[in-house]
């Protein structure tokens, strides 16, 4: 091969590999009715996409090239093409769509219908409805197990987490947690589930095999939780503390808290950093999960919420 | 002020601090006061004497329940608001409180007031911030007086009237 062509080939390969590994954060902006697309490598907003009224929940699939956004005041779900950063479809959802999550294989998208106490299922490709199931009161955060067997749903007003079997869509267990569970996350191996309990200022750790629980005190009025890329640390947003509590997974001890913007809500990890959406400040704070310091602050749209996994966790 | 009383009187509903709707609302207001921060902070942090600076408040009754501090505000236009003190930080000059129940057409209301030095020498900047939800928790149609606009109007009215009068009182006018 011509050496110049080979060099060009290497450059193109590197560029596409870094775009893949880096990925994008999709930040829902309640007050601007938009989504800010943030490049997680250079921390710049690369696009702003108009969606429905008061977007809150978000789920990202790099595999499908799609992003799903719940517009709670509009009663709709926006579907974004993540290659063109444009809305390609809007699904009407009667009720109050808040939480959004994908199945383990990304073939289905789940929407928590807060006021109707239901989880709705859609085919993520055809966007056709597949069914619904009744859960506890005010379902909020959701996450699917990596083996595809379970869907976990935080029932905010029932103070429990529903464990739903994806074989028959029946509730196989309801695990009592603290008061007002909102955000959920799961360790990559699926063995530990974490629920953030807003009214208790606590995080519940659930062993997914035994369903036994333990809890850790966090800051004021916590909302959401994310794991560091190496799975060793948990980061919990405290909406009324304007900070993030950092917990060591192995010892279950609080290591420190990190000041972020005002009323931090959504939190997700890229392959390198932790991203926090600050509702009051209209910003995203980026945290280094090793040094536990803030490394940048990004201006987004008004009242950023980003509830859900707003960066695709399955990225290599 | 009249408009504010009308707004408050409109929503004489028993409000629950429990479950709320999906979209929080935000109000942030600031005022510059020609008085030393310590003097302004002394007024703001005095949780049991809100009538000393807020023109809509007729009287304040302070209550201690164990370690917690509450106040019952009786408004000049009628009605009450029952509030819980979250913290009063002298170092940061930041007062945090929440509404337990009352006539404001809001749900799950929490707020803070900060006093900062500046912009000029001997001046203070007071910022009052609130996060809350509308009264009506479910989907449209939303009954009149329980929507986002009613909640925002009421809180804007309370903050505007309060900060304007705090400035007058602190400046000794």
From TrEMBL, chain B:
<dbReference type="InterPro" id="IPR019587">
    <property type="entry name" value="Polyketide_cyclase/dehydratase"/>
</dbReference>
<feature type="signal peptide">
    <location>
        <begin position="1"/>
        <end position="19"/>
    </location>
</feature>
<keyword id="KW-0732">Signal</keyword>
<protein>
    <submittedName>
        <fullName>SRPBCC family protein</fullName>
    </submittedName>
</protein>
<dbReference type="Pfam" id="PF10604">
    <property type="entry name" value="Polyketide_cyc2"/>
</dbReference>
<dbReference type="InterPro" id="IPR023393">
    <property type="entry name" value="START-like_dom_sf"/>
</dbReference>
């Amino acid at each position: 091969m011509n050496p110049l062509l080979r060099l060009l080939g290497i450059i193109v390969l590197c560029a596409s590999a870094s775009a893949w590994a880096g990925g994008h954060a999709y930040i829902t902006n309640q007050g601007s009715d938009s989504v800010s697309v943030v490049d997680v490598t250079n921390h710049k907003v690369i696009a702003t996409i108009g969606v429905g009224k008061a977007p809150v929940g978000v789920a990202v699939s790099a595999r499908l090239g799609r992003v799903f956004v719940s517009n709670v005041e509009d009663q709709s779900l926006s579907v974004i093409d993540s290659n063109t950063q444009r809305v390609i479809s809007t699904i009407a959802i009667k009720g109050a769509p808040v939480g959004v999550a994908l199945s383990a294989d990304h073939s289905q998208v789940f929407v928590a219908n807060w006021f109707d106490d239901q989880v709705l299922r859609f085919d993520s490709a055809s966007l056709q409805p597949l069914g619904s199931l009744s859960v506890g009161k005010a379902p909020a955060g959701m996450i699917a197990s990596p083996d595809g067997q379970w869907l976990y749903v935080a029932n905010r007003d029932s103070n429990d987490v529903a464990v739903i079997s994806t074989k028959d869509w029946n509730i196989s267990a309801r695990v009592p947690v603290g008061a007002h569970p909102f955000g959920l996350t799961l360790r990559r191996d699926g063995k530990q589930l974490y629920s953030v309990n807003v009214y208790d200022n606590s995080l519940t750790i659930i062993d997914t095999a035994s369903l036994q629980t333990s809890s850790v005190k966090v800051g004021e009025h916590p909302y959401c939780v994310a794991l560091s890329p190496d799975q060793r640390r948990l980061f919990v947003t405290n909406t009324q503390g304007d900070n993030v509590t950092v917990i060591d997974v192995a010892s279950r001890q609080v290591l420190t808290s990190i000041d972020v913007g005002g009323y931090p809500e959504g939190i997700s990890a890229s392959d390198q950093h932790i991203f926090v959406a600050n509702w009051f400040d209209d910003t995203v704070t980026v945290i280094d999960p090793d040094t536990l310091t803030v490394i940048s602050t990004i201006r987004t749209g008004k009242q950023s919420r980003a509830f859900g996994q707003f960066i695709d966790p399955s990225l290599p | 002020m009249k408009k504010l009383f009308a707004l408050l009187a409109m929503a004489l509903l028993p409000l629950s601090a429990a479950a709320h709707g999906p979209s929080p609302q935000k109000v942030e207001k600031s005022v510059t006061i020609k008085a030393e921060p310590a003097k302004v902070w002394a007024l703001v942090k005095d949780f049991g004497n809100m009538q000393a600076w807020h023109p809509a408040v007729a009287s304040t009754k302070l209550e201690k329940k164990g370690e917690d501090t509450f106040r019952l505000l009786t408004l000049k236009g009628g009605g009450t608001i029952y509030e819980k003190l979250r913290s009063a930080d002298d170092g940061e000059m930041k007062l945090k409180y929440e509404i337990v129940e009352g006539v404001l057409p809001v749900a799950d209301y929490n707020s803070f007031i900060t006093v900062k030095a500046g912009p000029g020498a001997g001046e203070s900047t007071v910022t009052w911030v609130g996060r809350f939800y509308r009264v009506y928790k479910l989907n449209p149609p939303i009954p009149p007086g329980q929507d986002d606009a009613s909640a925002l109007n009421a809180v804007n009215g309370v903050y505007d009237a309060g900060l304007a009068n705090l400035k007058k009182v602190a400046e000794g006018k």
